[in-house]
Amino acid sequence: MNYGLESGITRFRHRRDRLVKVVTAYKDWLEKYADVEPAQLMRLFDLTETLKKDRLMLAFVAEFSRGKTELINALFFSDFKQRLLPSDAGRTTMCPTEIYYDADSEPYIRLLPIETRFRDDSITTLKRLPVEWSTIKLDVSNPNAMVSAMCKLAETKVVFKVEARALGLWDENDPNLGYMVKDQDRVEIPAWRYAMINYPHPLLESGLAILDTPGLNAMGTEPELTLSVIHNAHALLFLLATDTGVTQSDFEIWNKWVSKHASQHYAVLNKIDMLWDDLKSPEEIGRTIQRQIESTAAQLNIPTANVMAISAQKALVGKIRGNEEMLRRSGIQALEVMLAREIIPSREKIMREAVVREVGPMLTAARDTAQNRLLAARQSLLDLHALSGKNQQIVGQMREKMVSDKQLYEETARNFNVTRKIVAQQGWELLTHLDDDRMDKIIEESMMAINDSWTTAGLIKGMHLMIRRMGAEFDHANQQSGGIKQLLNAAYQRFHDVHGLERMDPIGLSLSRYRGRLDELMVSTQEFCSDPLNIMLEKRFMVKKFYIALVTQARIVFQQVRLETETWLRLTLDPIVSRIKEHKTQLEHRLENLNKVHTNLSSIQERSTAISRDMVGIKAQLDQIEEVAKEFSLLTGIAFRPLEGSQQAQTA
Ligand SMILES: Nc1nc2c(ncn2[C@@H]2O[C@H](COP(=O)(O)OP(=O)(O)OP(=O)(O)O)[C@@H](O)[C@H]2O)c(=O)[nH]1
Ligand SMILES: [Mg+2]
After folding, report:
1. 68 CB under 6 A from ligand 1?
2. Are strands 208-212 and 56-61 parallel, antiparallel or unpaired?
3. 295: exposed, middle or buried (C-beta count within 10 Å: 0-12, 13-18, 19+)?
4. N or C: more exposed end of the chain, with fewer CB within 10 A?
5. Range of the domain at 325
6. Which ligand is nearest to the CA of 91?
7. Where does the pLDDT of residue 35 fall: very low under 50, low under 70, confident under 90, or very high at 90 and above?
């Protein structure tokens, strides 16, 4: 029933499953035919697990009462035949709510008490601490129980103003907070800070995750929402309502949170049913809606095609009642098609890139190994062929030559081992610059720069220092990695020049996207600090909260850089090491052949037969990895170079 979106997500899952399958096939191949460390197999297994859990995050952002929750109900939960998530006139959703599926747990709703705002922990940190959350098991077979559990999302509590102030939720001087006042001393605040819902809906099972947010500057009170959750969302849906048009606060939300964060900008003009007027002709109504679309597009400065007019409420009713005409009129289908078209490809791209980064170079190397084995076997056959009819003396000479070739190779390999040790040492040193202790120190220094002065000026100072120090570590990593790459290149060049091994060009370490992320954090800091609301009131509490959120993000970037560097070190060194080992084995095989023939000249035929037999097995290895590579190319668009000479190798 979910048209574009459902089939789009099914396709997404299908391609994700194929990626998992191809990575698993590659892992199986390595396990069978290559001498790899268990850690490498483990990493591939982890990659498939990550892929399976990969989610596509769709976030709903708008001022209160624009119909975000109603739209989520209509898009995803109409099968409940009632409103699952509470949506009502006025403020309803009180805390940001993530909805997703996690097969490892029973369905639940987890709620983070608002009091956790007293602590200096980020939501990201708290997500790892289940004890901090209040958990309710969901009985998905009982719609009424489900609906009443979901009511929690709208819970509020009334507290004294001092407490609300201490939580950073109340400020006497902020004229925008009047709606919170309950009486002279007390205000109404959300009962929960964040909610996570694990629910087995087919679309969520396919990897979709949703973020519903409350209106009324909820983004401002939880800086992490913008710095992390919204930043990581793959698509943002911004809602407006026909009855209110684009108000000042809609415009602020659009400017502050939406337009900067998404590359594609779409706005949903909701509640068009309010323009349905029985006394007007459908054409007249259509023209009124079109006019609203045009003025919305002009105000937000986006093309009219990017404004979708819908009625979330009628879509929900239409779906529940199976009223096709109402559903069509609600306009939701066009929105679903747009979502399928826009969000899924961008998510797939990210997933593909992760697989290509981790598997691409190793798969190339594995394929080369298989091919080299075949070529080496063919060479052995040629060697034997050349020996037939020769006398023992000539065979002896050939053997001598082979022995000295092998010795020369072993010497080069020994020299390479020295390089390898230096590389390992430099790699280790490089990683110590990127470990958690180093980041702790950077944070400590930036805290010292702020010197407990939680003003916007203090924040800028602290952030500048943190980003400069992190940037310096990234520069150091880049420089060191350049040196490592040069060392390896020079060492490998000798294998190429002297021993005829094919050229290899290790990839460089690229940290530019992490640098980019740091720049983004700095821009967010500057924006936060130039926001009149934050300057005027110098909200000490909020400045500190913002800083904590920034530090959490910065730490994540630092950890990612470490991981990227570790992966890089592996991917630069491993293929070279295994190529060198492989060549040694091949030389040994050839020498063994010569030895055997030397002691017994009549064994040539027998040896040839044995090698031909081996070749069948090697050919099967090559065919298998070639299958994997083909599927990998199809899924990722990465082309492998054709296997040169393998044709001759097969027919030799
Ligand atoms: N007429 C009409 N009413 C709608 C439509 N969509 C939502 N509403 C109503 O508008 C009110 C607010 O809807 P919600 O979904 O709670 O709005 P929200 O954006 O989630 O608001 P907050 O959770 O407070 O941020 C509810 O009474 C809905 O029934 C629509 O398409 N047409
Ligand atoms: Mg809501």
Report:
1. yes
2. parallel
3. middle
4. N
5. 55-133+192-330
6. 1
7. confident
pLDDT value of position 314:
96
| 3 state DSSP class of 190 | strand
In this structure, the dihedral spanned by the alpha carbons of residues 273, 277, 282 and 284, taken in order and rounded to 10 degrees, is -110
What are the tokens at 204?
Answer: 């969520």
Query: Does the CB atom of residue 506 touch ligand 1 within 6 A?
Result: no
Q: Is any ligand 1 atom within 6 A of the Cβ of residue 534? A: no
Cβ 139 under 6 angstroms from ligand 1: no
Cβ of 75 closer than 6 Å to ligand 1, yes or no, is no
Asked whether residue 5 is domain-assigned, the answer is: no
* Residue 88: closest CA among 274, 313, 331, 314: 313
Closest ligand 1 atom to residue 212 Cα is 20
Residues ≥6 apart with Cβ < 8 Å to 149: 109, 136, 138
Contact 543, 459 (CB under 8 A): yes
Task: Round to whole Å and give the CA distance between 560 and 572.
Answer: 18
The CATH number of residue 206's host domain is 3.40.50.300
Structure token digits, residue 577: 């090491």
| pTM summary value | 0.78
Ligand 1 atom 2, closest CA: 271
Q: Does the C-beta of 276 come closer than 6 Å to ligand 1?
A: no
Query: pLDDT (tens digit, 9 = 90+) per residue, 523-570?
Result: 888 888 887 776 665 567 788 888 888 998 899 999 999 988 988 888
Looking from the CA of residue 73, the nearest atom of ligand 1 is 15
Residue 354: pLDDT band by 50, 70, 90 thresholds? confident
Long-range Cβ contacts of 608-611 (<8 Å, 24+ apart)? 608/381, 608/384, 608/385, 611/377, 611/380, 611/381, 611/384
Mutate to test the pocket of ligand 1, among 91, 92, 277 (most ligand atoms within 8 A of CB): 92
Query: Is any ligand 1 atom within 6 A of the Cβ of residue 67?
Result: yes
pLDDT digits 0-9 by tens, 400-421: 988 999 999 999 889 889 998 9
Residue 188: pLDDT over 80: yes
* Ligand 1 within 6 A of CB of 92: yes
| From 60, 249, 313, mutation site for ligand 1 pocket: most ligand atoms within 8 A of C-beta | 313
Cβ proximity of 137 and 108 under 8 Å: yes
pLDDT at site 262? 63
Q: Does residue 313 sit in helix, strand or coil? A: helix
Residue 343: CB partners within 8 Å, gap ≥ 6? 56, 58, 234, 235
Residue 243 beta carbon below 6 angstroms from any ligand 1 atom: no
Indicate the SS3 state at residue 624: helix
User: Count of domains in the chain?
Assistant: 1
600 vs 188, higher pLDDT? 188
Does residue 503 belong to any structural domain of this protein? no
Q: Decide whether any atom of ligand 1 lies within 6 Å of the 329 Cβ.
A: no
Cα of 75 vs centre of ligand 1, distance in Å, is 14
**349 in a domain, yes or no?**
no
Domain presence at residue 232: yes
Please tell me the distance between residue 67's alpha carbon and the centre of ligand 1 in angstroms: 3
Q: At what angle do helices 68-76 and 312-321 cross, to 10 degrees?
A: 30
For residue 67, the CA-to-ligand 2 centroid distance in Å is 7
**Is the Cβ atom of 292 under 6 angstroms away from ligand 1?**
no
